[in-house]
C-alpha cells in the first residue's frame, strides 16, 4: 500500500489543495499532517482522548500566526485564551497512522471567534472539535477587538460569518 503522505512534510502548515490531495473535503484550508506516536496511546492501545485536544492546540499556534491573530513575539500581541474547548470522537486511531488535523474559523464577533477542527485519516473524520477563543489586552481582563484584517481573513480563507 502506498503512503499518501510520502511527499508531504509533517507538522508544516498545509493549504486546501494539499489537504484535498490526502482526502480532506473541500472547505478546509489550513491543516497539519503527522503520525500517531506511542506516547499518544492509552491502555487500550488507541489514541488517548487528550491527544486530540493537544493536536488541536498544535494546529492553533501556526493558524494564529498565519492569520495574523498573534505573532507570539510582540508585547503588543493580544492574549489569546480559550473560553471553551470540546471534542467529539468517532473512531479510534492507532500507532503509526498518518492523519491530518484541520482548523477553520466558522464565526466571529468583535473580540472572539469560534474555531472548528477535524482529525482525518484517508478522508475519514475520526474526531471533530470546537473552541471559543477570546482576544484580550495584555492586562488579561479587557477584551481586545479583532482587527479588520483578521476578520477579513476569517471571511476570505474560511468562509466565516460575523455575528
Task: Give an overview of the whole structure.
With 163 residues, the protein is an alpha+beta fold. It has three helices and six strands; from the N terminus they run H-E-H-E-E-E-E-H-E. It has helices at residues 16-21, 49-66, 148-158, and strands spanning 31-35, 79-89, 98-108, 112-121, 124-136, 161-162. A hairpin with a 3-residue loop joins strand 3 (98-108) and strand 4. The longest helix has 18 residues, at 49-66. The mean pLDDT is 94.
Question: Main attributes?
Answer:
six-stranded mixed beta sheet, 6 strands, 3 helices, 163 residues
Topology:
Blueprint: H1 16-21, E1 31-35, H2 49-66, E2 79-89, E3 98-108, E4 112-121, E5 124-136, H3 148-158, E6 161-162
Parallel strand pairs: 3-6
Antiparallel strand pairs: 1-3, 2-5, 3-4, 4-5
Q: Biggest β-sheet: count, sense, barrel?
A: 6 strands, mixed
- How many strand units? 6
Let me know the average pLDDT: 94
Report the sheet-strand fraction. Answer: 25-35%
The helix-and-strand class reads alpha+beta
Quick recap:
The protein is an alpha+beta fold. Helix content is 21%, strand content 32%.
Amino acid at each position: 500500500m502506498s503512503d499518501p503522505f510520502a511527499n508531504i512534510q509533517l507538522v508544516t502548515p498545509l493549504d486546501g489543495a494539499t489537504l484535498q490531495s490526502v482526502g480532506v473535503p473541500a472547505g478546509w484550508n489550513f491543516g497539519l499532517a503527522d503520525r500517531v506516536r506511542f506516547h499518544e496511546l492509552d491502555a487500550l492501545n488507541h489514541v488517548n482522548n487528550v491527544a486530540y485536544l493537544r493536536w488541536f492546540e498544535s494546529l492553533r499556534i501556526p493558524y494564529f500566526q498565519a492569520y495574523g491573530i498573534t505573532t507570539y513575539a510582540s508585547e503588543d500581541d493580544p492574549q489569546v485564551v480559550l473560553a471553551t474547548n470540546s471534542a467529539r470522537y468517532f473512531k479510534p486511531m492507532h500507532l503509526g497512522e498518518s492523519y491530518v488535523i484541520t482548523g477553520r474559523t466558522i464565526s466571529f464577533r468583535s473580540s472572539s471567534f469560534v474555531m472548528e477542527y477535524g482529525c482525518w485519516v484517508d478522508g475519514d473524520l475520526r474526531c471533530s472539535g470546537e473552541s471559543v477563543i477570546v482576544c484580550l489586552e495584555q492586562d488579561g481582563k479587557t477584551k481586545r477587538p479583532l482587527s479588520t484584517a483578521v476578520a477579513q481573513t476569517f471571511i476570505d480563507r474560511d468562509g466565516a460569518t460575523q455575528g
